[in-house]
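**User:** My hope is that you can spare some time for a protein that puzzles me. I have put the entry right below:
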Amino acid sequence: MENTTTLLLFFSVLLCHGAMAIPEGEEHNLFFMHNPKTVVKTDAGEMHVLKTQSGCRRFLDRHMHIGFITMQPKSLFVPHYLDSNLIIFIHKGEANLGFIYDDEVVEMRLKEGDVYVIPSGSAFYFVNKEEGERLHIIYSIDPSTSLGLDTFHSFYIGGGANSHSLLSEFAPAILETACNESRMEVESVFYKELDGAIMYMDDSDVPSLGTKFLQLKKEEKEQHQKKMLHDQEEEEEKEEEQQTSSAWGKLLDTVFGKVNEKRESKNSVDWSKATNLYDKKTDFRNDYGWSKTLDAVQYPPLTNPDIGLFYVYLKAGSMLGPHVNPRATEYSIVVKGCGEVHIVYPNGSKAISTEIKEGDVFVVPKSFPLCQIASNDGALELFGFSTSAREKKPLFLAGSVSILRTMQGPQLAAALGVSVDTLRRALDPQDDLLIFPSTWSATP
């Protein structure tokens, strides 16, 4: 029923939508994200963010910001928190991510392909400990939770844009009382100038957030975590004893216990774990390329920001056929190679047909038909975010699983002004499902 409704909605929009009055030559500025804003820039690294063009937002169900973080070897992105949800993807290199989980500092090792969600208001930091290897992170910002201060706002616990902690804006007397330390000690910690939000660090340096925990040896960390787990289990056991102290309580627990366990399991989200997009099985693969997606079912932390991820690989000269995402807007980043992207307005007029190259970021609004083509010189790789964490169910307009093939019959033939036999001859020869070898890819 859902597919039928989606098809009817798509065709009604396709046939009835009014003309899109976009000035000639402005299409590229509409769908591409240009002019990155520099959020952080130091000798040790940079952070940039791209905003969706204001003219494009009228086509979008939701919008987001796309950004890039680059960190030099032996560098630290100082502890801070944001007013927005942050979804990170490790594009190149490895990083140590420190964050607070259940009132304890946890440090996680992230490798290429890892995805992690940092909720709004959660303090965190990055460390690039690698020798001679730069760290590249692609991230998306969900502005729905922001304070409305431009794109988003960072609150630095140490360092930062003004080279000092946000705590330094409080009077020394306030920090003396809050920290129970002398003024000299407080001023030596919170009032000295630092090297900005991204700084170089020695092997002996550690972030001020959770220093004691991070300095523990591996064995001590494991013992500490085991103790935390043991204490938590004891606390849960005490709560269970209190809840089942009466015979009636025990009876209810026996009858409804399994139901409650399933409900708690369904509603709980483990924010302490990352997932790896590269390790995920492909959703589709043939001789010409593959694609994969990541949704909230596969990675529950995506539920709250309601953002999904995808990755597309096209061999040289291959094409991801014309298709539609009826559920979400897609933000694509060209992470490797070059090629073309073609986007069509719902009324059937051309929105954009242009070349794309590594580093380009473009937006495809929900229900806008599109296709991507790799150049003959090499493979094209696209990574991106979508504005829905639900399972992605694209509608393909060509190929053996296309909506044209599914709906072929007298009604569609009449709508196109051809006979049923003519329609069948036009649609039946294509046996490839989603990704096709381009007819112009072969050398003459």
